[in-house]
Amino acid sequence: MGEGKLKAAVLGLDDNGRLLLEAASQMDCFEIGAVADKDANLAEETGDQYKCAWYDDYRQMIMQNQFDCLLAAAGLHTCDEHVKMAIKKKCNILKLAPPARNFEEAVELVRLAENENVKFAVANTGRFARSFLALRESVQQGRIEQICLITAVATAINRRYPAWQADPKLAGGGVLLHNCYGIIDQIVWNFGMPERVFAMNISTAGDRQQRLYLTEDTALLTMRFSETFIASLTASRHSTLGPERELLAVYGKDTTLTVSDSKLSINDLLGQTSEQQQYDDSKFFRMTRLLENFALSVISPDKDTLCSSGKENLRNMAVIESAYLSARTGMPEEPQRVLERARLEPADIGPARPEQ
To answer: Does the N terminus or the C terminus of the chain have fewer Cβ atoms within 10 A?
Structure first.
């Protein structure tokens, strides 16, 4: 690291990897040292474009260089050992969500980063969307009293996702893990980890036998936070054309707050809108703010706090792990019991319920 710049490498050059690369390349705190992708032509073309080294072998890129940080966008099944290798070389990691295929793998990465005294961060871009920041501020200021219900909807389109995400061994999960991580993070970040989780998952593949070997594309998740507070999440990934959507509604005693990545509105019991804010945040804007936070947490850790650490994200992974377990057992499961398997101090992970 020289002159306040982090020498960075980008691992994986799909759409999200290119977004990471483009944002980081335009920031003063990063110097792009190398890029890597399994597609040699894509890697070479990108390396030439950004005037940096390029690799089609992840292992060689890590072994032959010393980076300050690795921006990991590749599917973890293709690069988990290389990410671990980078951590052992004292490289800070920013991993696109989800951080791992399952809870145990996430714990392993968090522990390894802790032992090597490097940052392991998860790229939850929703935490930097102004609409969701307005939600967080409204909750913390008590503008919604006696919250009793949250309803969330997440829809995605199959054609935009790689084939390996349909394989449970490679992907670790389907629509809940790969398409709902951001909305689950918003729920847990703002309202804490639920006491109990119940889930039902299905695959809508036409062939009945095929469904046994595919990740879920449709899911229903219910969460109980207390005797007077519950939440539900409906998720689907389909092949029809149409917009992708993430929508979260919070119901209080006299107020309903609805938020998406571009809008926040507050209504009274009669449905009359008392406040509405429209935001024009782009994915690039959110990624830039996230990368800035990550970079500053590495450059000046005593002054700047990492917004989305791997440790904190273990709470999200515990909720998701509980959901998949519940779908198998047909019974409610307790995320706290999953979290206890990590044997980390609660203060290290963050409170189960944030102060409001």
So the answer is: C
Give the side-chain half-sphere CA count within 13 A for 285: 11
d(CA 22, CA 284): 8
What are the residues whose beta carbons fall under 8 Å from the beta carbon of 238, sequence distance 6 or more? 155, 156, 157, 158, 204, 217
Mean pLDDT of the chain: 92
Establish whether the linkage from the previous residue to 98 is cis, with ω within 30° of 0: yes
Distance of CA 51 to the CA centre of its chain: 30
| Domains of the chain, start order | 6-125+285-308 (3.40.50.720), 127-279+314-349 (3.30.360.10)
Beta pairing partners, 200: 220
348-351 contacts, C-beta under 8 A, 24 or more apart: 348/311, 349/311, 349/312, 349/314, 349/315, 350/311, 350/312, 350/315, 351/192
Check: pTM over 0.90? Answer yes or no: yes
Whole-angstrom distance, CA of residue 177 vs CA of residue 277: 29
- The number of helices, as runs of H, and strands, as runs of E, in the chain is 13, 14
Any bridge partners for residue 197, and if so which? 223, 333
d(C-alpha 121, C-alpha 54), whole Å: 24
Structure tokens, 232: 């539900």
